[in-house]
Amino acid sequence: MRTGLTKQEKTTDIWFDEKDPLIHIRTHNTDLKNRLTAYAAAHPGECRQTDADPETGCMEFEIRKGRFSFRLTAPYSEERRKAASAAAKKCGVHRKVAHLYGDRN
Question: Source organism's superkingdom (predicted)?
Fold first, then answer.
């Protein structure tokens, strides 16, 4: 969808306070919009869409606290990064991705 917004203007805002049992989410992110829309359809008592702006592609949702989370991940150690790279090379991941994009070298 073309909205005329730059990537910098396509934001995701998540806000909540300690009193309100809901988290408010306003986003342009397509994957997050799709996931929240599906979740709201499957669990209407936990999540609902509150607004949508077709001109900008923005959607707003309310979701109960405890149903939305952030995952913090530590950076890979050099040893783990090398092990993951070696495993990917062994399984041919790099060749499979190159093949998908037409690079047959």
Answer: Bacteria
pTM: 0.70
Closest-CA residue to 63 (of 50, 75, 52, 76): 50
Q: What is the pLDDT of residues 80-99, one digit of tens each?
A: 999 988 988 888 766 655 55
Report the Cα–Cα distance between both ends of the chain, in Å, rounded: 34
Is residue 25 within 8 A of residue 14, CB to CB? The reply is: yes
Helices (H), the chain: 30-42, 78-91, 93-100
Q: How many residues in total does the chain contain?
A: 105
- Split at pLDDT 50, 70, 90, the class of 5 is confident
Percent helix, strand, coil in the chain, to 5, is: 35, 25, 45
Contact 3, 56 (CB under 8 A): yes
Q: Is 42 helix (H, G, I), strand (E, B) or coil?
A: helix
Distance CA 55, CA 104 (A): 41
